[in-house]
DNA sequence: GAGCCGTGGTC
DNA sequence: TGACCAAGGCT
């Protein structure tokens, strides 16, 4: 059997057992998260999904709260300048998500009368919404029937069904077919299954050291049965020190602290300007200067931020 | 499809 | 301690 093929699907009876066990586990052990109260607006769910892209729950919680106090509807956010969204995003990371969330709010206002659409296709057409986020909003906010596939779900499926330590690097068609085949027929049960498997992956079937002894389907796990073989590839890791991402982040930190716009030389000198600047910018400027970035990299990153629309320059002044 | 895009917690 | 990782999306 080619390695791209998923191992044999369990019998219908065994799949029912997985549904029962994992859904039951979820009902007993799920975290109490504010975007999962059952009374959330679709917008609240949508904001949570944007913030949770590649970002841990713990860091999202406070920003989600303040964001929704300030912009309780898509129209509220759409009425703001995009730069304010980037500033309010704070240090959540990947600030282009804030930019895309703003753009999505504008699109919701223009295309959908200010109401977050419920269908997978309409959601997918919004800026910053890919296959995961479209399915997640459709299921979690509207109770639609869709197949949610995130990194947690992929990992659970890889272990439980395919007997592998980790899913492949990129989502495959076979994985999607597997996820669809495992989805309960019943609508309510399918909604629960999506969130249950994701939660199992987040709390028990974790990437590093899974808590198999607490897993409700430990005795059904193909990976455990195979003796927990190692992954067939090495995660490549993410370089950070000296990267453009680090420098861009330091520049954006200065811009977030500067509400009115600042002299462009604060950034284009790599944080070593000849001009005076407001005292409240000092920490961010120092952090930028400490990188000692080569001028070529500084130029590239500054131009990149402008090109990406994360910074605006006008008459020598830069702002978000 | 591989590479890029932020940030901070964890072991 | 530094490498890995976290509810991805886009080019």
TrEMBL record:
Keywords: 4Fe-4S, DNA damage, DNA repair, Glycosidase, Hydrolase, Iron, Iron-sulfur, Metal-binding. It catalyses: Hydrolyzes free adenine bases from 7,8-dihydro-8-oxoguanine:adenine mismatched double-stranded DNA, leaving an apurinic site. InterPro entries: DNA_glycosylase, Endonuclease-III-like_CS2, Endonuclease3_FeS-loop_motif, HhH-GPD_domain, HhH_base_excis_C, HhH_motif, MIG/MutY. Its cofactor is [4Fe-4S] cluster. The keyword Membrane does not apply. The keyword Coiled coil does not apply. This is Adenine DNA glycosylase. It comes from Rothia endophytica.
């Amino acid at each position: 059997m080619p390695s791209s093929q998923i191992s044999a699907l369990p019998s219908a009876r065994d799949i029912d057992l997985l549904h029962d066990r994992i859904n039951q586990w979820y009902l007993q052990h799920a975290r109490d998260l504010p975007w999962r109260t059952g009374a959330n607006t679709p917008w609240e769910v949508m904001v949570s999904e944007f913030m949770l892209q590649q970002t841990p729950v713990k860091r999202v919680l406070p920003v989600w709260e303040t964001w929704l106090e300030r912009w309780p509807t898509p129209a509220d956010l759409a009425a703001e300048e995009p730069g304010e969204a980037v500033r309010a995003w704070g240090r959540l990371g990947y600030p282009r998500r804030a930019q895309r969330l703003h753009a999505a709010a504008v699109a919701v206002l223009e295309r959908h009368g200010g109401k977050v659409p419920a269908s997978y296709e309409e959601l997918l057409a919004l800026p910053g919404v890919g296959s995961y986020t479209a399915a997640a909003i459709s299921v979690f906010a509207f109770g639609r029937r869709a197949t949610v596939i995130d990194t947690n779900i992929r990992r659970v499926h890889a272990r439980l069904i395919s007997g592998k330590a980790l899913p492949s690097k990129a989502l495959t068609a076979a994985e999607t077919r597997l996820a669809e085949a495992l989805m309960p027929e019943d609508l309510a049960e399918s909604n629960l299954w999506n969130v249950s498997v994701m939660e199992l992956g987040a709390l028990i079937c974790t990437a590093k050291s899974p808590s198999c002894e607490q897993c409700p389907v430990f005795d059904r796990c193909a990976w455990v049965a195979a003796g927990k073989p190692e992954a067939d590839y090495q995660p490549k890791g993410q370089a950070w020190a000296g990267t453009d991402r680090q420098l861009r982040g330091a520049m954006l930190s200065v811009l977030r602290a500067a509400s009115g716009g600042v002299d462009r030389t604060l950034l284009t000198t790599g944080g070593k300007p000849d001009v005076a600047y407001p005292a409240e910018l000092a920490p961010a400027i120092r952090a930028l200067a400490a990188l000692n970035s080569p001028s070529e990299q500084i130029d590239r990153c500054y131009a990149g931020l402008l090109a990406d629309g994360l910074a605006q320059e006008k008459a020598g002044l830069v702002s978000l």
